[in-house]
Amino acid sequence: MSDAPPPSPPRRSRFRVDPRALAAALGRYVRANPVAVCIAVLITASAAATGTLWGEDALIWGAGPLATFASGRWWTIVTALFIPDSPIDAITSVVLALTALAAAERLLGSRRAGILYLVIGIVGLLAGVGMHAAVWSVTDLRPVVAAEVPVLDPTTPLAGVVMVASAFALTLWRRRLRLVGFALLSLFALYAGDADSWYRIITATIGLVVGAVLARGIERRSWHRSSARETRTLLALMVAVVGSGPLVALISGGGRGPLSLVVDAYTQYDDALLARCEQLSESVCNEQVALLMTRGLDRRCWRSFPSPSCWSRPGGCGRAAVRPSSSRSSPS
After folding, report:
1. Which of 1, 49, 106, 274 has its CA 20 to 30 A from that of 117?
2. Which helix (H) or strand (E) holds 145?
């Protein structure tokens, strides 16, 4: 008789997904957030139909002083609420619709959330386009506001609806939504400085006012002071948001906002030195090319990469490829 223990039953995978449970959860989510799901589907469908989901240009559907007023394309006020301007904008808008807008819908109700998405979005875009046109009329401000570039941004009405819903949230969540939300919106407006950012913060401000009006009849608790932990958390979030401002300006191509000049301190590169790098190899060439490629990101991350002028050189950028010192002059 063998003393070997009987074989143990196969262990069930801990990460096994039950299709029926997943389908039931998705069904509950759709029934609880029909407006958020419908808007996410509309954004995806409009991005696919206009080609922006594949990187094509669809600015003819965008709103702006010249596109909406001068050209008479009044429908752009509505199309700009659903058509994103890029694949990244499409993904961001869908994710925010399924998360932030879904949370706002649970606070406001489906019918009110759907109506507010259209009303707040249209009023916010009209106010933004009107203020944009007024600023464009000032000659000194024309270089920093691009009135000829229409705006396509579904996150604009999303910001307004979330700020309306913040009036119906609990005290602590209301503070979090408003403080962090306006910090993020101000960050993009002050550093990136594009028209989308300013339209977004104008719409959020209108949503804040509308939320205060709609929530007038709701009984409020007395003033609730945040705990020390909550205060530290909010301060940490604010520091993180403010600290990422230069990165936002870099990603947006240098930025046109009032604070985007901060980025110029570490995005300078020497054109003359880069031209010399086409003829010879210098140790500083790699740093200058990395600075040009990263537009200010940490150069230490790129020091191990050779410069493009050395890629086609048989000896690469090593010591063997460097010309004698007599044929080189120190960089200026």
Report:
1. 49
2. none
* Rounded CA separation 209/192 (Å): 25
**Residue 70 pLDDT level (bands cut at 50, 70, 90):** confident
Q: Are 67 and 152 in contact (CB under 8 A)?
A: no
Q: What is the CA radius of gyration of the chain?
A: 27
Per the structure block, which two tokens stand in for 331?
A: 């960089």
Supply the pTM of this predicted model.
Answer: 0.72
- Tally of CB atoms within 10 A around 123: 18
Which tokens belong to 311?
């890629």
Q: What is the dihedral of CA 277, 280, 282, 284, to 10 degrees?
A: 0
- DSSP designation for 222: S
Nearby residues of 14 by Cβ (< 8 Å), 6 or more positions away: none
CA angle (158, 182, 170) in 5-degree steps: 80
Which residues, including other chains, have CB under 8 Å from residue 313's CB and lie 6 or more apart?
281, 321
Amino acid (1-letter code) at residue 46: S
Mean pLDDT of the chain: 76
Largest CA distance in the chain: 99
What is the identity of the amino acid at 211? G
Residue 253's CB is within 10 A of a number of other CB atoms, namely 11
Q: What is the mean pLDDT of residues 295-307?
A: 43
Q: Which two tokens stand for residue 248?
A: 């936002």
SS3 state at 154:
coil
The Cα 42–Cα 83 span in angstroms is 8
